[in-house]
Amino acid sequence: MNISPDDVVFWQWGGFPLNATVAYTWLVMALLTLISWLVTRRLSTGTEISRWQNLLEVLVSGIRDQIRDVSRQDPGRYLPFVGTLFLYIAMANLLNIVPGYMAPTGSLSTTTALAICVFVAVPLFGIAYEGPVTYLKHYVKPTPLMLPFNIVGEFSRTIALAVRLYGNIMSGTVIAAILLSLTPYFFPVVMQLLGLLTGMIQAYIFAILAMVYIASATSVQTGNKDNLPNNKLSNNNTDKAG
What we know:
Layout: E1 9-13, E2 16-19, H1 20-40, H2 51-71, H3 79-94, H4 108-130, H5 132-136, H6 147-182, H7 186-217, H8 230-241
Helix pairs in contact: 1-3, 2-7, 3-7, 4-6, 4-7, 6-7
């Protein structure tokens, strides 16, 4: 039994193999694109909306609220990146219920690629928010002697992101394979359901950690009212005026 999707090769041309990791990554992206198009092609602003639009609005609102709670900023600038991370990982793990499917997040190459995206996005958001000089000063605080440690910290948390997601998804696959060899009927079904739950939790954790790193890069202090979204500030001012 192949545990890693990297080991399953569907087609090979010269030195370029098409393995399950790449194939199922394309499948997940295609499904997300198709679902997005189907749900958004007939959006309505009226009082009556479709159940799919209602589900989409609940999902987007939930992601926006989580980003706002973590960053204490307007979530609009972060929603596309963080939301895409969550939806991709969630969809990739949810499809495990399909027989023969292997989640691309069970490959270290996929989780590393996702972690690298976060690694690149954190300084980009930080520089866009504070400017390059102010952002780079964080690496020499509280003393320039901390520069190598701060740089190592950037790489270590990227590795931790990749290994955490990979380890949790892979461990579920390994346990299911062991139980399948021992008791081929009942326990694998239970483990599959637990694996789906774990996959959704890991998608949430990965997206939240990405947002935490971005929020730290933009130097947002959660207790500072000046960094709250404009709508919350206006509400507070209205309450005081009343």
